[in-house]
Fold this protein.
Amino acid sequence: MELKSTRMNKVSIAKDTRVDTKVVIICALAVLILIFYLFGFTGIKTILGMILLFFIPSYLILSSFKLEKDETIFFSFFTGFGLYALVVYYFNKIIPSLRLSMFIVWVTLVVIGIALRRWRLKTKF
């Protein structure tokens, strides 16, 4: 790592501190194996369902803005819980089928995320 000196003699670390993709995949597999060992197949389904329902739609939406990857991941995890649950709750008041409400809201949020990403790539703001 290189240290760079700024105007006021503060020292900052250069931004070449990326984590290797292989390390992330190995850590994710290790966590999934541990969850499978502790909770069985039900634990794996729960974790993958949480990632699919809560994380992915809000990650697609937040990745359209100028945030760093770690900020996007952190905010999308917690925003996903609040946003998805709130919208499903109020949408379920209109359509009294929870599964249908969950599906419609998930598809809508994913489409919004993809549309924002395409719009951002097109306009380059």
Q: What stands out?
A: Residues 25 and 32 are 10 Å apart (CA to CA). Residues 21-62 form the longest helix (42 residues). Confidence is low (pLDDT under 50) at residues 9-14.
